[in-house]
Write a structure and sequence with these properties.
With 992 residues, the protein is of the alpha+beta class. It has six domains: 2-145, tt1808, chain A; 151-276; 293-441, Rossmann fold (3-Layer(aba) Sandwich); 453-594, 3-Layer(aba) Sandwich (Rossmann fold), CATH 3.40.50.150; 625-848, Adenine-n6-DNA-methyltransferase TaqI, Chain A, domain 2, CATH 3.90.220; 852-986, no CATH class. Helix content is 42%, strand content 15%. It has 42 helices and 34 strands. Strand 4 and strand 5 form a beta hairpin.
């Protein structure tokens, strides 16, 4: 068995060079990592984002019913997309995310079979090897594996329908939720074998839960016994909850027996509550919070009103992996907005294992950790009930022998470690809060503070209340309250407290004065700080949110206090389907705090761009005046256009504009305004604006970037009214030519790059520009520039583009003319061109293009050329050597790409750098093996630990990266070359 399993694991990258890859567990270690009972894996690999792949070896091919049993357990765990069933003559890959439909449904979830192990290992590795999984190749090749069918999605959907039916049956929402929670907890106890069939029979006369629920007397006996055995915190009813009728309880029994309420037909019940992670069960609260509108005139859900967003387990792991790294286990943890307790549950689990220090976990250790180290506050009583419920389940799950039931009674958590109330005033409440979180010296101090506070904006009244809650001198973020909770959390901290909080990204990246002041205060107060930009993932990470997200981590690891670490998590094809993250070394930036304070836009730029972007951005900001400043010298500024408004709001005099042409959203194309505009006919409007802003020449920019990353700009040569879909600047009558020059600059890749790096919303939230985003664009003096050769050429291009359909070549010519106007170096032009490409990732088509496999022509050749450009600059001083690139022609479907750069002596003076396409002798594995042997590097082991590699040899460097295009951009080549040069100066000399 060992030989066959090892052979498969080694050939597919999970056991490189005979050593387990990071995250791989074998044998007993793998079996101990599971919750289930029927499935006993021989190996499991777990990614940093908690994604799991299970491996099972059998001497003979197992039956479909046995594989179905294994797969059902794996599905209930919710984290494993794949199950590998390996026998001496066959390897079968099964979809771990597919919903179980019967006890014999394994063939329906079979992805692919490999009959001949010796001949198929390469194909297996190409499909589902570790590199294929980690680099996203697997997700490009199969559509069947998707989180839409996982246990959390299925359970939440089923509970939504169950709650809906209970409410339709005249049960209020609180009572429905309480009933569902009690039943799930009871079924958990039964599935876990804590409450056994014999005990149920003795107590209630039935051996399983559904018939008990259909008998009112038996149900009452069971719930009374549960309350007595455990305590009233174990999902108690709220004070307002009503006792459910028999029909309500029977509907819940139908759920447990998979009875369709419409047809009465019984189907397969897929759930095993002893295996479903507690975090998934606690997520029920988020589903309830968003389930439907509460009573009242405003038809929004409680979750929408309070800014509730379920924190997915992968994000919890990302935060706690950082902030709890290196702790002893004796630390205290606080979540001031704990919701359903997902952070607290995982923190409890980690604290228990840290305290155990490898020794067997005891019930005494679990309980003392639960009662003394984990604290939560929330405004919602329902949320606190679910948090208590979840923590009790987690404690039972950790218990090595949860028997007998009567010995499992818990102390109440609510009122002791879990508090109902406002985090800002909880220490002032007499019924528990004051005694729990204060001491004789004031507020208690906690060692770790975590959470996902509300992000909601509650209008002017809410803002006024927030002002009252903030300490004197603490800046307040605009339009949201996330930072308010962070500032409140600081009150409960000491100088070494670690922070891990999920917040709205807007205060950190917006250009508002209040937002920047609040962000700067956070960075200085909690230094050193790490910001993890999650905005690319909001479609699946926080689908109900109306703002982008960032994870703030502080004081969690040794790093320079004068730096801010920014981690960019890019969109990936696998992310939405697996709820996992993909981070590479190039996605981590560390700008100086002083540099961010000098140029606040660099904080956002570091969350989007690379080191070369920040360097070029700093040059532009120091070398050129901003467009807004230039307009001001002409007595002009950018203005938002007219707001027509609904009739009830049309109260301001608009007669001065009456009869002028009206330009609306679809009336403008690049450099061209339609000639057949209708007339403005209103006498009044909501915001007509001043008449003078519509006087020609008017430089007009569309707010939304609807067609792509280039701004839509034109110059109006006649007076006209434009709507608030645009902003415009009315220039002096003698500045027509300058207006057209500025329009060309604003339409260029340079402007797209600048807006991506600096705009308040574009790149992290909405595909639009704000007025101050455009005003910040650095430009040469237009009065002088129109007389330069580059300026004249740019004006001629812009004039021609007004009259024709613009091609890609036309845009390239305009870009080059703008680059000439700014006198950009070749490497800086690469940065800007790639900036426009990266800006295209804000559209789905651009994102998909970024993760498609890099091709030799157009991708790798461009990368190689940009890399050589940097090295050639260093070699030009002596002109005795050149760099040659070798692009290895691997299979298009391989997970990696390989490029080799070689330094060569010049025999006859100067010679152009060469880029060769090399046909390797063998496949990718053989190529890597030969490179590793020649350079004395265990490449398989190295690739198991790092996503990108630079391997240095004598006069050569080999670059190995994932196949996705985003790794092979020109700007990536520039930065790789910079790193190679730096390493050449700092690396000790080799003796070859």
């Amino acid at each position: 068995m060992s030989a066959s399993l090892d052979q498969v694991l080694a050939a597919t990258g999970y056991l490189p060079d005979g050593q387990p890859a990071p995250g791989l567990r074998l044998g007993e270690d793998a079996r101990n990592a599971r919750r289930g009972h029927s499935f006993s894996p021989d190996a499991v690999w777990r990614s940093p984002s908690s994604l799991s792949v299970y491996f099972k070896f059998e001497e003979t091919q197992p039956t479909d019913s046995l594989v179905s049993l294994w797969r059902r357990e794996i599905w209930n765990e919710g984290f494993a997309p794949l199950l590998w069933v390996i026998s001496p003559e066959r390897i079968a890959l099964y979809n771990g995310f597919g919903t179980p439909l019967s006890s014999n449904d394994a063939p329906r979830h079979l992805i692919q079979t490999f009959e001949n192990i010796e001949g198929a290992l390469d194909d297996l590795d190409r499909l589902a090897g570790r590199l294929s999984i980690e680099t996203g190749q697997f997700w490009l090749k199969t559509d069947a594996v998707d989180r839409k069918t996982t246990v959390d999605q299925k359970l939440l959907a089923d509970l939504h329908y169950l709650e809906r039916d209970l409410i339709r049956g005249d049960l209020d929402r609180d009572s429905a939720q309480a009933l569902i929670g009690r039943v799930i907890f009871t079924q958990y106890l039964i599935d876990r074998d804590i409450v056994r069939a014999a005990l149920l029979k003795k107590l209630c006369g039935y051996a399983s839960l559904p018939p008990i629920l259909r008998d009112a007397g038996a149900t009452k006996e069971l719930f009374a016994w549960l309350t007595q055995t455990f305590n009233g915190d174990m999902f108690p009813s709220s004070p307002a909850a009503r006792a459910p009728r028999a029909s309500h309880v029977a509907r819940v029994a139908d759920f447990l027996e998979a009875v369709d309420p419409e047809t009465g037909q019984t189907s397969f019940f897929p759930y095993q509550f002893d295996i479903i992670p507690v975090e998934v069960i606690s997520s029920i609260y988020e589903q309830f919070a968003h389930a439907g509108p509460p009573p009242g005139p405003v038809r929004v859900t409680a979750g929408e009103r309070d800014g509730v967003h379920y924190t997915r387990v992968s994000l919890v792991s990302l935060v706690l992996d950082e902030v709890m790294q290196g702790l002893k286990g004796t630390e205290s943890v606080l979540d001031l907005t704990c919701g359903s307790g997902v952070f607290l549950v995982e923190a409890l689990r980690r604290l228990v294992y840290l305290r155990a220090s490898g020794k067997p976990v005891t019930r005494e250790l679990i309980r003392s950790t639960l009662y003394q180290q984990v604290f939560g506050v929330d405004l919602s009583e329902a949320a606190i009930r679910v948090a208590a419920f979840s923590l009790y389940l987690a404690a039972l799950e950790l218990d090595p022998d949860p028997q007998p039931p009567h010995a499992l009674r818990f102390r109440p958590l609510i009122g002791n470690t879990l508090l109902v109330g406002d985090a800002h005033t909880i220490d002032q409440t007499k019924d528990g809060g004051r005694s729990v979180i204060t001491s004789g010296h004031g507020l208690k101090k906690f060692d770790v503070i975590v959470g996902n506070p509300p992000w909601s904006y509650k209008g002017r009244r809410g803002t006024a209340a927030r002002h009252r809650n903030l300490s004197v001198g603490t800046p307040m973020q605009p339009r949201g309250e996330g930072l308010d909770f962070l500032f409140r959390a600081i009150d409960f901290s000491h100088e070494h407290t670690r922070f891990g909080m999920v917040l709205s990204a807007l205060p950190f990246f917006s250009r508002s004065g209040t937002g920047m002041a609040a962000a700067e205060h956070v960075l200085k107060t909690l230094a050193p700080v790490t910001l993890v930009n999650l905005s690319n993932l909001c479609e699946w990470l926080f689908a109900t949110a109306t703002m982008p997200a960032v994870a703030l981590l502080a004081r969690h690891r040794p790093q320079r206090a004068d730096q801010v670490t920014i981690v960019q998590i890019p969109w990936s094809a696998s992310g939405a389907r697996t709820h996992t993250f993909e981070v590479s070394p190039g996605d981590v930036m560390s700008p100086l705090l002083s540099d961010v304070q000098r140029y606040p836009v660099k904080l956002k730029a570091a969350s989007i761009g690379r080191h070369r972007d920040l360097s070029l951005l700093g040059y532009f900001l120091s070398a050129y005046a901003a467009l807004g400043d230039q307009l001001a010298t002409w007595g002009s500024e950018l203005n938002v256009g007219m707001i027509r408004g609904v009739p009830a709001n049309q109260t301001r005099d608009a007669r001065a504009m009456k009869g002028l042409e009206l330009m609306e959203t679809d009336d403008m194309q690049p450099f061209h305004i339609a000639s057949d505009l209708s007339a403005f006919t209103l006498s009044k409007a909501q915001w007509p604006r001043a008449r003078d802003i519509y006087r020609a020449p008017v430089l007009i920019i569309k707010e939304t970037l609807s067609a792509g990353p280039r701004a839509l700009v034109a110059v109006a040569e006649r007076d006209l009214v434009y709507t608030n879909a645009f902003f415009g600047a009315a220039l002096p009558p003698n500045r027509h030519t300058e207006a057209h020059l500025i329009a060309a600059i604003l339409s260029s890749s340079l402007a797209s790059w600048f807006f991506l790096m600096t705009a308040s919303e574009f790149g992290i939230w909405k595909r639009r520009l704000l007025r101050h985003d455009v005003s910040l664009l650095p430009i040469p003096d237009p009065v002088q520039a129109i007389n330069w050769d580059a300026g004249k050429r740019l004006l001629e291009i812009e004039k021609n583009l007004r009259r024709k359909k613009i091609s890609d070549d036309d845009w390239s010519a305009l870009d080059e003319a703008v680059f000439d106007l700014y006198d950009l170096e070749p490497a800086d032009r690469v940065v800007v061109r790639d900036g426009r490409y990266r800006a295209s990732w804000q559209w789905q088509e651009g994102r998909e293009h970024s993760v498609a496999n890099a091709e030799i022509e157009g991708d790798l050749r461009y990368y190689a050329g940009a890399f050589i450009l940097v090295i050639a600059g260093w070699l030009a001083a002596r002109n005795k050597r050149r760099m040659r690139a070798e692009i290895f022609k691997v299979s298009p479907g391989d997970a990696l790409r390989v490029v080799r750069f070689v330094l060569e002596d010049l025999e006859d003076g100067a010679s152009a750098p060469a880029i060769d396409i090399v046909e390797p002798d063998g496949d990718l594995h053989q190529l890597l093996q030969r490179i590793g042997n020649r350079l004395n590097v265990k490449l398989a082991t190295a690739l198991a630990a790092v996503r990108e590699l630079r391997i240095h040899g004598r006069n050569e460097v080999v670059i190995i990266k994932p196949a996705a295009r985003r790794y092979w951009m020109g700007v990536s080549a520039l930065e790789d070359a910079d790193a190679v040069v730096e390493e050449a100066f700092t690396r000790p000399a080799r003796e070859d």
